[in-house]
Amino acid sequence: MTIFGLNLQKAGLRVVAGQARTSKLTFSYNPSEMTTSKSATWNRPTTNAADDATDPQFAGVQPQAVQMEIFFDAYEDLFGDVSDDVKTLFEWTKPTSTSAKKRQHNPPILSFEWGSNKVLADFRGYLETVSAKYTMF
Asked: Stretch 63-68: mean pLDDT, rounded?
């Protein structure tokens, strides 16, 4: 879609590792906001004889997390059904059949794509939580 000379592209998720029935999902609307976070783990050893707190010790980092709310809209479609898109998201939370056969039990690894937008361009991850709210069905 082109508006005022700008090429607007829809955001979406794409499978980059692992076998999945659906390899790409394009959003009906681009997210209006997203949150990303990453944390480090620090340990502070305790000692009975210390007068002051001990120095913290770096113990590692936690994976990056991303949260966003996406909307699927099929109001103007003849049958108005978004259930296949929602089903795809739910399926992407489960281990793939290929990984289960290898006894690794990994869900597909996804990338977030949004045209030339560099937000999360290098992010690769899996879906941890999906919830769906249906309105006007």
From this structure: 92
